[in-house]
Amino acid sequence: MEKMAEVNRQWLLRRRPTSNVTADDFEYSETSIPDSSSLRPGELILRNLLFLCAPTMRNWMEPPGNSLYPSIAIGDPVMAPAACEVVASAREGVPVGMRVTAFTSWQDYQRVAADHPVTPVPDGLSVTDIMTTYGLNARTAYFGLLKVGKPRAGDTLVVSGAAGSTGSVAAQIGKIMGCRVIGIAGGARKCAWLTGECGLDAAVDYRSGDVQEKLRELCPDGIDIFYDNVGGDILQAAIENMAKFGRIILCGQIATYTEGGPARGPNNMMRLIYGSVTMQGFLQADYEDETDAAFRQLRQWVDQGLIVHRADIRPGFERIPQTFAALFEGGNEGTLLAAVE
Amino acid sequence: MEKMAEVNRQWLLRRRPTSNVTADDFEYSETSIPDSSSLRPGELILRNLLFLCAPTMRNWMEPPGNSLYPSIAIGDPVMAPAACEVVASAREGVPVGMRVTAFTSWQDYQRVAADHPVTPVPDGLSVTDIMTTYGLNARTAYFGLLKVGKPRAGDTLVVSGAAGSTGSVAAQIGKIMGCRVIGIAGGARKCAWLTGECGLDAAVDYRSGDVQEKLRELCPDGIDIFYDNVGGDILQAAIENMAKFGRIILCGQIATYTEGGPARGPNNMMRLIYGSVTMQGFLQADYEDETDAAFRQLRQWVDQGLIVHRADIRPGFERIPQTFAALFEGGNEGTLLAAVE
Fold first, then answer.
1. Does B231 contact chain A (CB < 8 Å)?
2. Mind telling me how many Å the CA of B6 is from chain A's nearest CA?
3. Which of A135, B133, B159, B251 has the fewest C-beta atoms lying within 10 Å of its C-beta?
4. Measuring CA to CA, how many Å separate B254 from each of A75, A135, B15, B230, B250?
5. For position A13, which CATH number holds?
6. A-contacting residues of B 52-91, CB under 8 Å?
7. pLDDT, tens only, A99-132
8. Are B186 and B271 members of one domain?
9. CA of A257: which chain B residue's CA is closest?
10. ipTM of the complex
11. Domain of B76?
C-alpha cells in the first residue's frame, strides 16, 4: 500500500489531439482530496491504483456530437478503465478496503455517484490479474472471437495487433478452438513471441514486407476469420484475402485513430459482396450477461497453460501521458498499464 | 416469334470502361449462326430473347485478376443473364422450343456447353415474368432481406436504389414483414411511385437535399436494416444513422462502379464498432438450394397483390449498349431489359 497522497493529482485533457497523441495534449493539475464526510448514500471514494491504456480512449478524446461513445470534456480528467481501492463508502456491500474495477479517470482519487458501477476483484486475484489476464481486453477477445467470429476447427484465423493485449488472447483462443492462427505484429521480437510462447502457426511483421502479399502466401485458401484491432491498410490487406463466407471481427482500428476525422474504412466493397463476407463491429459490453462465464472459462484456460499473457506496467503518475502515447507507437508489449505511484 | 436472323449479331467488349459506361466501349460484329449439325452430346444452341441489364455486369468488365467474379475478355460478346429459346438441342430434357433462363451473352445465338446450366421457364409464366417479377433480382431481394437482414416486425428498414429492380422488391417484402420502410431513389417521380403504388412509409429523393440529414429526421431511433444497392455517399449517410445492432445488407454498389478502381468503402468504422453494426455481402447464388421456395413465396405474394413490379423493356439489338448505359444514369424505372428484335 502506497502512502496517502496529500493532494489529488490529476491529468486533464488540455486539447483534443488532432493526429498523434502527445504529452502536450494533457495538463497536470492538483485539487484537494474528496471529502469523505460529505458522502451521500451510495457514493464512494476510490483510490486509483492501475489505469488501463486502451486505444479506444483516443476516440473518447474526439469532439462531442455522436451518441455512441463518450467525449471527454476539455479540462476534465481523462476517463479510463481502472483498478481501485475503496477508501470511503456509503454503498452497501462495497466496504472500505475492497478492491474494485471501474471506469474512473486520471487522478489519485475519484468520487463516484450512487449509480456508478464498480466490480469487486474476485478472491485470489491481484489487481494486475484483473486488469490483464482477466480484464476488459481479455473478455473483448473472448466475446469477439467466439460470438462474432464463430470459429470452427480448421478455420484460418488472422489476428492484427496480435502481440497486443486483446489480439494475443484472441489468437490463443483461436488455437484452443482448433484454428490455424496467423498473427500480424510490428517487429521481429513480437513475431517471435507469437510463434514461440503463444504457439501461433505463423506471424507477419507488418514493418517488413507487403502484408497483403504475405497473407496471400500464408493463406492460399483465404482467411476465414480476421480479428481486426488495427484497421486502415492492414484491414485492406485482409479484405483482399478473405475466403468465401469469411468473417471480419471489427474490434479496434488503432491505425486510423491518429489520422484525424472519422476512422477511414476499407475499399473494394465488391470483395465483400462477391465473397459473401461479413464485417461486424461489437463491444464486450454487448455480452455483459455472460461476463462470469467468460471469466470462468478464461481462468480455466490460463490454469491449463493454454493462454499466456504479458503485461507492460509503467509506474509513475507523472508519466501517464507518455505511457498512454506509447500505445500508438507500438512501443508496448502486451497489456499496457499505468501504475499510480 | 421473330424472323430467323441470317447472321449472328454480337456486341463485343471493345475496351474496359474506365469510368462511365459508354456505347464506344462496345463494338458491333456479325458472325455466322452456330451450326446445329455439329452439336456434341449435352450441347445446346439458344436464341437470346431478353437480356437483363444488371449493374454488377459493370464489374465483369474490369480487368481479370480476382478469383471472385468473371472478367469478360476484350473482344468477347458481353456476358449477361438472359431469357432464351432452345433452337437446337443435344441435351436430354431440354427440347427445341423450350424457353429457359441462362447466362449467355450479347448476341443472337449462343452455343452452350454440356455443363452450362439452363433453367426452364415455369409453366404459365412469360419470359418477361421470369426476368422481372420472379427473376434474379427478385430472388436477390428475397434472400438478401430475409437471410442477411433478418427483419423483425417494427424494424426500420431503409432501401437504397429503392425504385430499382431489386430495391423495390426488397422494400415491399420489408412491408410484408411488418417493417417501417423508407426508400431512397432519384427524382420525385420514383419517390411518388414508392410511397404510392409500393406502399412505402416514406421516400427520400437523393437528388434534392442531404440524405444523411433526411434519414436522421425520418429515423429518429436509427436504421435497423439498411438494404444497400448503391454504396458510396448513400452508404455513408446510412452508416451515420444506424441503430445499435443494425444490419447493413451489401447487395450492390452501383454508385462506385463507374468511379474506376476497387469500389470505395465507407468511413467511420467506429460507428460500426460502437454500434455493433453488421455489414454483410451476399449473392443470391449462396441460397441456390432455396430457389424453388423463394419462387413459390414470391408468386404467392404477387398473386395477393403484395408486390408490384415495374419493367422497363427497351427493344432493339442495335441499342443494347445504350440501354445498358442508362442503368448508371438512373434512367430506368424498374427492371431494365434489352429485348432482342
1. yes
2. 39
3. B133
4. 46, 44, 20, 5, 11
5. 3.90.180.10
6. 59, 66, 68-69
7. 999 999 999 999 999 999 999 999 899 999 999 9
8. yes
9. B270
10. 0.92
11. 8-132+309-339
